[in-house]
Amino acid sequence: MTIHSASQIGGVLRNAVTFNFKNSRTVLTHAELIPTQVEHFFDLLEARKIEYVLVNGIAMLTYVEGRNTQDIDLIMALPSLAKLPEIQIESQDMYFARGKFGELQIDILLTKNPLFAKVEQKYSTTKKFMDRKLSCATVEGLILLKLFALPSLYRQGSFERAGIYENDIATLLNAFNPKMEPLFKELSNHLNETDMAEARTILTDVEARIQRFRKANK
For 119-170, how does the pLDDT look when each residue is reduced to its tens digit (9 = 90+)? Predict the structure, then answer.
């Protein structure tokens, strides 16, 4: 399903936690709390006028069906994060922070990273849901973030996560056919020459996959 309300975000996260058999019995027992906590979390963001951009799995579900995720991922400035002491920070570095809000896993992409700041400023939109408005990355913003991350994921040997990101890119390209050269021009400000070449190779592979799919469905 595609996401149409904040309550559906809670349902997606709850189901992802429930059907991840790696989770402990305690985590599974508390999964039913997630939808209410999602509503509370977005209420806090709104009440405190915190600027953010929803990205990754939940943002994907505002555009396409079939994405699964256990986390809420946001682009946010460090001062905004400081306004949310309810998030219990588990790890943090210059560009990323991870914490818990009740049972919710919250991943923060900090705007100290120039690309994250650019996505927040230029590649975000307001998505109108039934019960509220949420700031969300555009299709182009999501592709930028995933292409930016993929060369690093390859070096780390993160096969599963790289596969998810590649599939996200393929799904967005197939559904929306965005112009890619402006995105590569933007990426060139944030990736070195080697990583840019890798990103272009990834795109070529993804586009070939899309063409095979389209030919098979003619």
Answer: 999 999 998 765 678 899 999 999 999 999 999 999 999 998 999 999 999 9
| Alpha carbon separation from 121 to 3, 10, 48, 118, 130 (Å, rounded) | 23, 27, 20, 5, 25
Tell me: do 98 and 15 sit in the same domain.
Answer: yes
How many residues comprise the chain? 218
Q: What is the pTM of this model?
A: 0.84
Same domain as 90, residue 17: yes
pLDDT classification of 20: cutoffs 50, 70, 90:
very low
Domain boundary among 105, 137, 169: 137
User: Rounded CA gap, 208 and 110, in Å?
Assistant: 33
- Under DSSP, the state recorded for 51 is -
* Tens of pLDDT, residues 166-212: 999 999 999 999 999 999 999 999 999 999 999 999 999 999 999 99
Same domain, 56 and 76: yes
Domain that holds residue 73: 6-116+125-137
- The C-alpha atoms of residue 126 and residue 128 are separated, in whole angstroms, by 6
What is the structure's pLDDT at 159? 92
Helices (H), the chain: 6-18, 25-29, 34-47, 56-60, 78-82, 114-122, 139-156, 159-176, 181-187, 193-216
Q: Which two tokens stand for residue 87?
A: 């998030």
Tokens of 60: 């994907």
CA distances from 45 to 82, 83, 85, 161, 166 (A): 12, 9, 12, 28, 30
